[in-house]
Design a protein that fits this description.
Elements: E1 2-8, H1 15-28, E2 32-37, H2 52-65, E3 75-77, H3 90-100, E4 105-111, H4 112-115, H5 124-130, E5 132-137, E6 149-152, H6 160-168, H7 179-188
Length: 195
Amino acid sequence: MLVGVLGGTFNPVHNGHLAVAQQVCDKLELDKLLLVPTYATTVKNSKSILPPDERLKMLYMALEDCRRIKNIDKIQISQVDINRNRATYTYDTLIDLHKEYADAKFYFLLGEDIANDLKSWKNAEKLDKLAKFIIVSRRNIKNTESQYRVLQIESLPISSNMIRERVANGMQIDNLVPKSVSDYIKKMNFWKEKA
């Protein structure tokens, strides 16, 4: 079984995340792609990050909204990091996923913005034994690291930070996130203060 892993804060999940997930499923011919929201982040400023249960709820809403989209049935949510109840590292995530999916071959998806930092990650020297790392890029970049594959995709110019800023400034986000997620953000008054 070929399983892709797309981790992140998903703060909030947006149409760009879903577009990347769909294309990766298609191009890598995955049997399953796991969206793995973090419990807490070890990297980003956590001031504007919602609690894990709220981010998880929006992920489930997004997938339910998108049920008729190609490959969406292959996309699932894994709570492996959230269940740990603490900040976690990719190494820990992959170890746990190997226990859960013993027969799987894993592809761990990275944005080109963090790919250069991979060698500084916890247990970096062991990571390539747990998964093949795929750099997902909007640009046609040359692969300088032979152990990483570059997968060029068409992605939407959307970021979670952009969405939070738009919400804080009273701007619309309806075309950036699934409808249920937009409605929920409005209902809960998330990010009404400047992000």
